[in-house]
Structures
1.
Amino acid sequence: MDKGALVVQMMGDSSNGGVGAAVAGSFSSLRAYGRALAQTPRRLARRACAATSPGEEMSRVRARSGARMARRLRWHDLVGLGLGGMVGAGVFVTTGRATRLYAGPGVVVSYAIAGLCALLSAFCYTEFAVDMPVAGGAFSYLRVTFGELAAFLTGANLIMEYVFSNAAVARSFTAYLGTAVGVDAPSKWRIAVPGLPKGFNEVDLVAVGVILLISVCICYSTKESSVVNMVLTAVHVAFILFIIVMGFWRGDARNLTRPADPAHNPGGFFPHGAAGVFNGAAMVYLSYIGYDAVSTMAEEVERPSRDIPVGVSGSVVLVTLLYCLMAASMSMLLPYDAIDTEAPFSGAFKGSSGWGWVSNVIGAGASLGILTSLMVAMLGQARYLCVIGRSGVMPAWLAKVHPRTATPVNASAFLGRPI
């Protein structure tokens, strides 16, 4: 039911003591309050299924933010944000697990399958973002299709997901940075706090500093944040291309079909058959998470009908190509049953005489990937918070857009609190 029609119906009911009367005078007397409580299930059911229209989301609801977000992003900005959001540290971990436990060298096909699934999902986000270019992403799409309850549950899950994942990724930045400079970073750069449970008693000052720095950047300007992301992503992709080239140069094509221990592990390009390839695809799909955050930038895209499809879909295609090449190079470096599941790329080079320095390069590249994925995730989370604030589910203070920076400053600053 449309929310406007629901309000009209409720107002119309006020003359006969229906829902409208309960809303208008729920606290006027004890009897009125009891009557309102009795009507709560019916009113909640109506509100849960009430859906807004796309036009309402783009006009009246968006007006609650005050100033408008600036439309300054183009398709290449979205491609850069998509690359930065997806190509993080995940690929450096999931590749090893999927290869060793499930797909073997066929992990290349696993990445292709996962990339196709991500592309189909990206098409869905693209269609919604073009028809309704607002910053709410999945929250807004569900609000206009299934109603407020589905949108509320989705928004709560998204916010929780971003908070926990950003905290974990920020802390992993310390470890990867330590690998790049040859320092045991977790033990040297984290401060133990006495009195707290073990495992929760270390303050990661580097992670806190990174979060605060990114928060300042996304508060200042979306376009400048995109430029910073483009620079970091370009350097990160250069690191990845270096890893790919080194893998093909140092690798051996025989490792694609020959295990290290033929007596205990099957050989071939698909050692565990089609089931292993699809199980591997399910695992490596985690490496594609991040393209959905690009759809939250739809309100700041200059030409949504052209830039969003190219930006979102193009970034998924490029990431799929990079992932397949990375998986192939790693499979050539070592037999699949000799790959380190926790650090497959750096572990492969550490075992090579005279090539241990490459693991430091991998640590540096992964650190840059963490920075870009954090920036894109925080840009997306700030816009989710802004639109959820517009809906009234969260405080309206979060929905305000600063007239000078044209960014949701309150939501962005709220994200910058120490983790």
2.
Amino acid sequence: MSAQVNTVLGPFSSWASTEYSVRSNGICFPNKNPRHGGTFHGTSPSGDAAGCGSKNVQKKYSSGSGARRRRARAGMALLAATRAAAGLRGIAASASSAPSAASAGGRREREREPPFVLGERGTTMAVGGHRGMGMNAVGAPPGARVGTARERENTLLSLGRAAAHAAVAFVEFDVQVTKDGCPIIFHDDFILTQRNGTVYEKRVTDLLLEEFLSYGPQKGSHKVFKPLLRRTGDGRVLDWRTEEDDSLCTLQEVFEHVSPRLGFNIELKFDDNIMYHRKDLECALQAILKVVFQYARNRPVFFSSFHPDAARMMRELQSLYPVLFLTEGGTSKHHDSRRNSPDDAIRVCLEYDLHGIVSEVRGVLKNPSAVIRAQESNLVLLTYGQLNNVWEAVYIQYLMGIKGVIVDQVEEISNAVSGFSKPDLSQGGAGLDGAKHQAFSQQQLGFLLRLIPELIEQQH
């Protein structure tokens, strides 16, 4: 790959030994030869895709009771994590000579190419800002580590401030499409306001663009046309207040006003409680693609979605930008069986020819061997979740070979990741070079031993 292309790609540059598809906007990623024009075989949310219905069998530990059993589990999980880190190094070193991984359902063998690589300035982990500088959680207690971002999430203010941190490679934000076909930035399925003491809520996708933009502060004015409220997890409706507010915005505005050096992780947002027809999905995705194709230029962009069929369709509609599958990673049960474990997510990616997985971090830490399976399947693996705001938990993922983390504590975690260095694995026979690396401190080991048993024993 030429030096010119590498310069354009910035933090998303990939291994030079791979054959890439380079388009006019300078973004490149591995060729996967999607089946354009093929028949769409999506399933209803309650059904299984072909080859995606089987469950991952979890081993049960029986090494005693109480504290002894927890110590045994912690030791086994720590050993698995260490082996995962070592195994990934070996897999990376031999990627060019390893045989192709066959996908589910007897499909053709996938090309053996590494996925696009996130990270910059020599690191192997990229940091992404969650909805910009972090999500807002109304009613969060003072001093809480999650949900207390000063800026309103998913706004130009929040996304722009994330771009100001050189260590931040990309921002994640949520895109929906209004009734009149405009892609807008908003997370929740419903938007709430209050008038004369009465709370009103409307589905975001039922709004025209003009009405959507009338909520919250207005551009060029301190006047608020419609106050914004938000529903908490326990059902309460509270004022949605932030220290520094900003107006709602469209996808086009984000492309136009946020630094072009910043990568965009565009989450394709669909309501879990709705069964979408193919034409509805395609209409929304085409509207989003129209804006991306027109305004992305040289910006690194990739898509992600919890909706398996939306991810599949986005992969079929275009071959320019990578598509990743979002999954709870087994941390919660979902009626769509494709979303219930890391192994299910891997099968979805292989079946639909996706580029990788964005998993809830606890799902990966509870099942560290999934990192190796994803690598063997040529899939990039990123994580999200509250544990990503604890730098020690991020450090463990760094050692395991996770390619990127989406975080709310943007400044703190990006600074920590910038200072990470690899441990010296050569003493265990797994080192890949002679460089000296930082080992675990006693504090970090103590954190691991406390953290891992809790993750393993957590119920769905």
3.
Amino acid sequence: MADSRLTEKTPADAGQQNIGSSVTRTDERNANADQIPSHEVTSDLRSVLVTSVLNLEKLDTDLYRGKHHWVPRTQRLFGGQIVGQALVAAAKSVSENVFAHSLHCYFVRAGDPKVPVLYQVDRTRDGRSFSVRSVKAIQHGQPILICQASFHMQQPSPLQHQFSMPTVPPPEDLLTVEELIQQYLSNPNLAENAKQGLNKLLADEVPIEIKPVNPPDFSRRVAMEPKKLFWVRARGHIGEGNMKLHCCVAAYVSDYSFLGTALLPYPNHRAQFSASLDHAMWFHSTFRADHWMLYECESPWAGGSRGLVQGQLWRQDGVLAASCAQEGVLRVRALTESKL
């Protein structure tokens, strides 16, 4: 299965910039001018993931506050938001010549969408090649997430290999989730409860775009392999050059619809409760999170009311950009025949 071709390098491998809180509106730029290096204040960063979700407010040295944008219907904070914001806070404390190569997080409490999150950074270590940061996300005086992030100075290496990217249709040949839902809603025979559920999905203001490779059938429930493939990108324009920022956006993206992969073989069960326990990510190559990337997700194991999922984010040119892994709680109930 392995493909030993060399990883491609891009011009962005050289001269990447540090992460900043670049925004689109002049008043917001002025309000954060003390936090943004002058060479990073641009007018082309229009993605809400940059202007809002990942734009932290500096309260003190290594102490930041983050607000919320999209809250899932569970009314618990989206784990990808907390991971992405924690990586933003960590990235603000390292030098410009090192870039995130891995993060490891534990979710220890559910997030409260009614209050902001504080991010406290501990500068664990600064070496010649690696810098390590510990970040604690805090609400109501207690940690909701503990994150370790490591940053690495890019170095050449003769050891370069990767697996092959799956062969799938390009994103321009596929429909977005919203377009697929509109197709189902146009069916005059669609049950009323199904219409209500699909309209709720349309109302979600998720700041990323999704194009499933194998679209789900919202009306028929069939057992599937615990694998899924979908193209994903941030809504709006972010721009090139700031690799720290693209890693933070990818961390946000990586948690979306990830744990649900473990439920695909069980169409006759519904999750009564699901929550991420931990999340890990490794960054391999430069990429742009506002360009389409293929997210390959699979669940190699489930048991004990837990599920393990693994994922790879591929650039459209076939280069492996990042790898992810997560374990979560999955407590399910069997559906009765009338609810199938």
4.
Amino acid sequence: MQKVVAVLGGGIGGLSACHHLSKSPNVSKIVLLEKSGRCGGWLSSIRRDDGAVFEQGPRGVRPAGAVGRNTLNMVSELGLESEILPVTKDHVASKNRFLYVKGQLHKMPSGPGGVIRTIPPFSRPIIQSVLKEVLIRKGTEEDESVHAFVSRRMGSELADIAIDSLCRGVFAGDSRQLSVRSCFPPLYEAERSRGSIVLGMLMGSGGGPKVVPSDLAKRASKESWTQWSLKRGMQAFPEALEDMLKRRERVELHHHAKVKSLNMNGGGWEIKLDDGISLKADHVISTLPASELASVLPPAAQHLSEQLRSIASVNVAVVNLEYEGFILPFTGFGHLVPSSEDPGLLGVVYDSVPFPQHNRSGGLTTRLTVMMGGAWFEQTFGHPDSVTKQTLLDRATQAVTSHLGVNSQPVWSCVALHKNCIPQYHLGHWKRLEKMRQYISNHNLPLTLAGASYDGVSVNDVIFSGRTAAEGLIGKT
């Protein structure tokens, strides 16, 4: 029986789902519904006429693990190998990452020396925490906050400074509220299977998906890439995917197609759009944010809607800045700021260091991106609808001045406020997912949940969730 599948949301997850669905002869039609005028979601690049590229969303992708290989395999399928800009392990952007603590920048410990010696802002060598960690008894809780987990196993100093900053850098979130089980599954699994993070990391905790590497993925591993981007910015990835899908006759892509309601109709769905058009589908893959899906489900699925609404998300302000000349006091990837230092300021990325290819042609410049807000947005800036771009710009340039000692003003800037852009996997997230998927199964709903709200917020995770959703319908491709 051939199916009509509707994919809700044209971000990278929705595009990935369509890509994998289109490989199967058992799907007669794939309809992608995207509410905005473009696909790609948060993958959004500004390309200036002088060759400069600025990322408003994710700026680089990690090649590591099965999900990293899966993304690189897709890059190959799209014929984008020649566009790739790799950053290797020995690159200064990989080696130098900083923390801004007590008004000063400190290089994060790296390499054996960094682990054995006491390096500020830490008051003792990290090796002490590591050796002690192996002896600590296994936790008994089903879930724990990231902060509590790391405090218990590695001590409060690492939790307060390094892990707090890391959670702000990855999730724009609060380590005291985020779930270790859902945000950092390898840490949780390492403790469960080996009784220790360190032993789990050394011995591996097994499991995980299997992805056969393409030649590109093999090259990434051989050359020790830590991240990569594309010559025309990360947006080139969803653009290439969309172009490929447009050439496939069973795929229909609709922009400006906002879903108003979903209703069950004789074993399938009736999908009403904002403009009054209605479509029928045998199955729906939703890559919409959880709360958006909740608002279009039928009243009968109220229990599912309530669970979906309980997945929170945060607002992040992204300020791209360009300065004349090379203005950094030292080079590296960038610096993160723990919440105890400045709750509203998450970190600064030194974009020109990992990707100088994105600088404008002619004349030396420095591109920086300042990330602000996240879980602290409202307490710092007030309601997202009432904050002005000037306020955000001033706050960002002031941070560059005070953290990096830069006295000149930027020659170009762009302020973007991304509302509800990063889902927050708070304590018990795994339980909510279990309940939602159980509900869908018990009620025989032809619905699959995919996208950043559920099983990982990174670009790789979201792409893989699209693949998994498609393969759940059509089998492995």
